[in-house]
Each structure stands twice: as structure tokens, then as C-alpha cells.
Amino acid sequence: RREQTRTFVGTPAWMSPELMEQVEGYNHKTDIWSAGITALELAKDYAPYAKFPPIKVLLLTIQEDPPSLETYDDDDDYDDADGEDHGSGTETERWSKSFQDMVKQCLQKDPKNRP
User: pLDDT digit string (tens) for 62-90?
Assistant: First the structure.
């Protein structure tokens, strides 16, 4: 029997730092991290770091500041539903403060600081 084996399964882009590091294991704080990543995905059409290979996602998540709307390295030009170009705009101008605060709270590196 393998009682000492520690493994994890999941999509790295949505995994919390503590789950990657296998510090505390899986709990509801891990789901809160994933909810923050999902919110960014819904806002930007893809998860932060999703364009990188899994090992790089692991390193970025553990070593860098938590992802945010500013993490994305893409063109700020966007079209709305009618196809009209709205030109450049910073992410802080395009998303409400409450949305940005919710993402920031969910993506705290220390799970004790998440809601």
C-alpha cells in the first residue's frame, strides 16, 4: 500500500499555488483560487498562462505575483457585440472595481487571505 504517495491531477492553469506545492492539499480555498482564474478566463476568453506549457504554468503560478487582468500580454483593442472597435483601453478602465477586487481576493497566494 502506498500511504506516502503524493500526487495531484488537474489543469495547471486553474491550480492554486498550495496545491501545486502540495503544502495543504485540496480544500475550499483551492476552489476560490480556481473561481478567480475562471473569472479572468471569462473576461479575457482564456485563462492566464493558458498559452504556456504546463511546467511553465506551474513555475509562473508558484514564483510570480498572482495573475490579474494586467497579466495578459495581448492587444488592448477590442470589439463589442456589434463589431465596433473601441480602441485601446486599460484593463482597469474596462472592468469594474468590484470585479477587479473580487479577482484579487480570490487570487491571494496565501490561502488564509482568500474569502
Answer: 999 999 999 887 654 444 455 554 445 56
Measured distance CA(100)–CA(106) in Å, rounded: 10
- pLDDT tens by residue, 7-47: 556 789 999 999 999 877 789 999 999 999 999 999 999 99
Alpha carbon distance 54, 3 (integer Å) = 27
Q: Nearest CA to 74 among 93, 46, 33, 32?
A: 46
- The helix/strand/coil state of 28 is helix
